[in-house]
Predict the structure of Two pore domain potassium channel family protein.
Amino acid sequence: MQSLPLVAAGLALLVLTSVDFALTTLGATARPRLSGAAARTTFALLDLGSRVLPRGPLARLAGPAVMLSVAGAWIAGFIFGWALLYAGLGRTVTVEGNATPGFWDIWAHVGHLLSTLGGATTQPNGTLWNAMDVLIGVNGMAALTLTMSFLLSTTQAVNASRALARRVLLDGRPEDPLGYEAEIAQIVSQIQAAPFALYYSHPDPATRFPAALEQLAVAAEARDAATARRMAGLVAGLPGLPTDAETGDFSGCVRRWHGRYTLGRDPITSPL
């Protein structure tokens, strides 16, 4: 028996997940919604834990945990979207023994196809559903391939931003923050394409890009207004960073942004 509410829910979940996945992995400048919520929630839980647990291990865990939660959100969206759609369309799947398939039979069928493992103990109920199964398999292959590419882009952005952070924070407040202009522009572009790189924390205070950016913002404002405006323009594309140097609080904007990506939000010179 068909169920239009299940069909509508499945289609809505598939569209939401597909748009979020495509814009995040291919969009380069997208602001992810579904995956962004998963990332923020995971980091917030780690931040709460950092107030009672040693922050060193949590800092090492932060980036991988966020990426796993993002991948989990995409997987859950695809598998439940297809399962709800299939369940709502009626008898789309045949179970061994010709028993009436339940929701979890359909869920397992879809899950095996998305993971390219095959149909397990279930089979499509006819030629149409056999063809539909191909779409699910292609969905799974595309998701796996693009996720691996996105993960590579993320780790490259993490490594580049950490290298700059070490230069800035180990040298102390730079007299000429625009001396890092080319590196900052490159890193901002990389993080625009891989925004979850910002959640990769580090036990070493001298390896945190948000902390380094705060130092550069302070140094830019201390130098002159033109330097502050130039620096604000360079970093304006970073996710979630409102930078308006005209207000005279460029470093304040960066400081608040820095706090969003720092476990426990201690001063930047304090060890974890």
Q: What stands out?
A: The longest helix spans residues 127-171.
